[in-house]
Amino acid sequence: MDTFLKLILESLLSFTREHIQRARQTASVGANTVEYILIVLGGIAIAGLVIAGITAFVNGKIGELG
Questions:
Q1: DSSP string over the chain
Q2: What is the pLDDT at residue 44?
Q3: What is this structure's pTM?
Q4: Among 66, 16, 21, 63, which Cα is nearest to 42's?
Q5: Are 48 and 28 in contact (CB under 8 A)?
Q6: Is residue 18 within 8 Å of residue 60, measured between CB atoms?
Q7: Do the Cβ atoms of 50 and 8 come closer than 8 Å?
C-alpha cells in the first residue's frame, strides 16, 4: 500500500514540475491560470482518493480487532 501511495505522489509531483516548467516557457497568462486551477483540483481529487483508501483500510483493520 505504501509503495502505491509513493508512486501516485511521485507521479503527481513529476507532472506538476514538468507542467510548471512548460507554463513558464509560454506567454499565455490566462491559459496558465486555468491550467493551474485544473492541476490543483486534480491534486485535491487524488488526495481525496488517497484519504478514502486509507480510511477504508484503517476501518477494515479496526473491524478485525473487534
A1: -HHHHHHHHHHHHHHHHHHHHHHHH---HHHHHHHHHHHHHHHHHHHHHHHHHHHHHHHHHHHHH-
A2: 92
A3: 0.51
A4: 16
A5: no
A6: no
A7: yes
